[in-house]
Amino acid sequence: MLTSAETLLRQQYEALQAFDRLLLAEHACLLQAQVSQLPDITAQKTAQLAALEALEQRRVLAFAEDAAASASPLWQQVQTLARQVAEANQRNGAMILALSRSTEGALHILRGTDDSAALYGAQGLGQTQGATSRLVTSA
Description:
Layout: H1 4-31, H2 38-65, H3 73-111
């Protein structure tokens, strides 16, 4: 028979698995540049995080009532999965940041607001910080 703490840990584990599946879906969308699906995934992630937070609050109370629950092998599995999920979330966050920076850079170039975009002048000569280089020759 499972104790209430074990039941709660099982619920936490299952919620973490669901969150991990969302992160995998988000990662696939990022790799395939299917950004149209990201708002839906983000909404699902937000809801899942709220559920995980509620479960965590309940777990803290359960562990306060039953100190032996922290020795449960299931608790070790929850902690391991939570670390993996956190790493996957950081990976996706880094990908989103890189894609965002890339998009911003492209927009700056297209708008003509990026100083580093003017690497060469009309004559094919290099330019530095907007200053034109002139080749001075004497006859």
